[in-house]
Design brief:
247 residues, alpha/beta, Rossmann fold, seven-stranded mixed sheet, two-stranded antiparallel sheet, 13 strands, globular, binds zinc ion
Length: 247
């Protein structure tokens, strides 16, 4: 940090930064604000990722657009947010009369948003039919017993409710690549795409969700949008929304 920036209080720096970033080149659907660009993020950094205002990334923006389109967001919603993204948690908790529960499997050394509970999604301390909306995005690829987790998510979802269950999918694969004996982080990166992923889902992901009881919505949102909207909303073409409905 330079001498000048040290002299300016951080709150003022943030204010100046947000003022500078205002624009109408892109529009974040999560915080509903226009910006001159999405910021680069990741390692190695990818361009066009982070909303400068709410910190949303591509998949959070897609999930939020999906929920808005389907008119899922309403007052009094009972929400379970697994591995909560801060940007979405801010929006969900501001719904009038919302009953919001956030949970994550605690890992030492990580920092969780205040109020988040330590949660094992294969055995949850909630009664059946407890939630109208479950957000559980990019979680199941980390869970060894994902079929158990899906059944548990189905159990706590109320009839008529929806669960957002997005995962990374290799759409060129018909079947999921899975091998519990692969525990070496480097081997997992090579085979499953990340050091802590326990499988790489293929197109049969939907079959697993159906086996747990869900009626599945599979929505490749970017395929029905024009290129300009995909750019403005900052979405990833490889990302597909998977949502489970409980009838
Ligand atoms: Zn935003």
């Amino acid at each position: 940090m330079g001498t000048w920036s040290r002299l300016i209080p951080s709150g003022v720096r943030t204010m100046i930064f947000k003022q500078v970033m205002r624009g109408d080149t892109v529009h974040c659907p999560v915080c509903d604000r226009g910006a001159i660009a999405y910021l680069p993020s990741g390692s190695p950094p990818r361009p066009h990722v982070l909303c400068p205002f709410c910190g949303s990334r591509e998949r959070a923006r897609m999930a939020w657009l999906f929920l808005k389109e389907r008119k899922v967001l309403r007052a009094g919603l009972r929400v379970l947010h697994v591995a909560p993204e801060r940007c979405l948690s801010e929006r969900l908790t501001s719904l009038p009369g919302v009953k919001y529960t956030a949970g994550d499997k605690f890992t030492p050394g990580y920092d969780y948003p205040p109020g988040t509970i330590d949660l094992d999604i294969t055995a949850m301390p909630f009664a059946a039919d407890s939630f109208d909306l479950i957000m559980c995005s990019h979680v199941l690829e980390h869970v060894p017993d994902d079929r158990g987790a899906m059944k548990e998510l189905f159990r706590v979802l109320a009839p008529g409710g929806m669960a957002i269950l997005m995962v990374p999918i290799a759409l060129e694969r018909a079947t999921t690549d899975e091998d519990p004996s692969v525990i070496d982080p480097r081997e997992r990166i090579k085979r499953f795409g990340q050091f802590d992923h326990v499988r790489l889902y293929g197109r049969d992901y939907v079959d697993r969700l159906r086996a747990a009881g869900f009626e599945v919505i599979e929505d490749a949102m970017t395929e029905r949008m024009d290129a300009e909207s995909v750019f403005r909303y900052g979405l990833m073409r490889s990302e597909v929304v998977h949502a489970g409905i409980k009838r």
